[in-house]
Amino acid sequence: MAHDQADDARRGSPDGGTAPLAADTFAERTAALSPGVTATTPQPEIRDHQPAPHQPAPHQPAPHQPAPHQPAPGGGPPTATWSRPPGAPSTRRRALIVALCALAGTGIGVGAQRLTAGHGTGDRAVPAPSASAAPISAQVTSFDPKADGSGFRQQNGSWKSQTYSSAQFGNLKPGIGLQLDLGSAHALQSITLDAQTGPLMVELRAGDAAVTNVDTFARVGAPVSAKGPTTLPATGGGSHRYWLIWVTSLAPSGDGYSALIGKNITAKG
């Protein structure tokens, strides 16, 4: 009878499991056991949900974290330390690079300044004196080695010679010229004339006396074929008062040969 009640009690348990025996039923069942058997009260089955034990996550490489602050020696405030990325220059190295670049730039600038500087006062280059020549006033007259009045004459603002039968003055004379009197001795750079007929063969000569002998005038430079504005170089001719434009060959003109030179003749020294 007691077993049937126990079975009924088990079937009536809410979860269909084993229900705990009532105290009087347990006492009735254990009374018939021998003295050497120890009865224990059955414990109810615990079905409460238990959380699954913690499983460590797979190992993942931790991101780079700056090192924690470390206390400074002597109890001072903590100092932060960190690792420098590979290849990044340190602050001291960057400062050294900047200093070297600045020093190199200074050296280049000083070198360029010394190269462009001359040997004048201080480090500055002394500019060369101007090479431009100033005109020198001169009195122009006809020069005729025969002194027979067959040299140049002024006509319509120009100097015109007589007409000859040949370019060599009809073999009557070696040439004719125009003499420039500077008033005192001067070293010239050039004499410029305008050959209005041409080409004329002209050479420059210089002397120190107003004479009619052409051989007393020293030749300055080589003969020049003149036609239109023409410059006769005088550099190296020395310092002289008289300078002679000496015409040795005439140009065709009409029915003969003659020379026509503009009145404006410029001497530069």
List the helices and strands and how they pair.
Blueprint: H1 2-11, H2 23-31, H3 91-116, E1 135-136, E2 139-143, E3 153-155, E4 158-160, E5 176-187, E6 190-207, E7 218-233, E8 239-249, E9 251-253, E10 256-258, E11 260-262, E12 266-268
Antiparallel strand pairs: 1-12, 2-5, 3-4, 4-11, 5-8, 6-7, 6-8, 6-12, 9-10
Question: What do you see in this structure?
Answer:
With 269 residues, the chain is of the alpha+beta class. Strands 1, 2, 5, 6, 7, 8 and 12 form a seven-stranded antiparallel sheet that branches. It is built from three helices and twelve strands, in the order αααββββββββββββ.
Along the chain, the helix and strand elements come as: HHHEEEEEEEEEEEE
Residue share in β-strands: 25-35%
| Coarse morphology | elongated
Low-confidence stretches: 1-19, 33-42, 44-53, 78-83, 110-130
Mean pLDDT: 72
Separation, N- and C-terminal Cα atoms: 161 Å
The biggest beta sheet is recorded as:
7 strands, antiparallel
Number of strands: 12
What count of helical segments does DSSP give? 3
Radius of gyration: 65 Å
Task: State the helical fraction.
Answer: 10-25%
Estimated structural class: alpha+beta
